[in-house]
Specification:
Strand order of the largest sheet: 1-2
Strand content: 5-15%
Distance between the termini: 77 Å
Low-confidence stretches: none
Order of helices and strands: HHHEEHEE
Number of helices: 4
Oligomer: single chain
Length: 161
């Protein structure tokens, strides 16, 4: 039991989740006029993915050998296979979740930087967007459009009689 506890403690100490530590997370939403400070690079999530894959390979190897190894021509078996697998699963979960977060943050950051670049180049002009509920504005079926307009194909359009 002490061996399993020490393996779990070692796993928690050595797993960091590079994306969670080294990336600047973008805000949930931002106006295109603002240049947000966030990380576009996918390096940290790739590192997390590599470590998760290495742990999966290690666990598969442990399961394939049944926790046995050869030492000087004699086969020895070890019983902490369960502890190794549990600590490996925890580690894979941490690195996997960190990688998922990192890929999501990098994608959102790239979209935000792209919108800001479009705004800076004059390609995005918020004054051109129709006012809510008016002809051409985005809507949902049955709501969001002014009187005399209906929501069709996600836009407020004039009623056809």
């Amino acid at each position: 039991m002490k061996l399993v506890a020490s393996m779990l403690a070692g796993t928690l100490v050595t797993t960091s989740g590079c994306s969670w530590i080294f990336m600047n997370k973008p805000p949930a939403s931002a106006d295109a006029q603002l240049d947000v400070d966030c990380t576009e690079s996918r390096t940290a999530p790739v590192v997390d993915t590599v470590f998760a894959a290495l742990y999966v390979i290690g666990m598969a190897s442990t399961l394939a050998t049944g926790g046995s190894s050869s030492s000087g021509g004699t086969m020895t078996t070890s019983t902490p296979t369960t502890g190794i697998i549990i600590s490996g699963l925890i580690t894979v979960g941490i690195f996997g979740a960190s990688a998922y977060s990192g890929y999501s943050w990098a994608a959102r950051c790239r979209r935000m930087h792209g919108a800001h670049d479009d705004y800076e180049e004059g390609l995005l002009d918020r004054t051109m967007d129709p006012a809510p509920g008016t002809r051409g504005h985005q809507c949902r079926k049955g709501r969001g459009c002014d009187v005399g307009l209906e929501c069709a194909q996600g836009r407020c359009l004039e009623l056809q009689h």
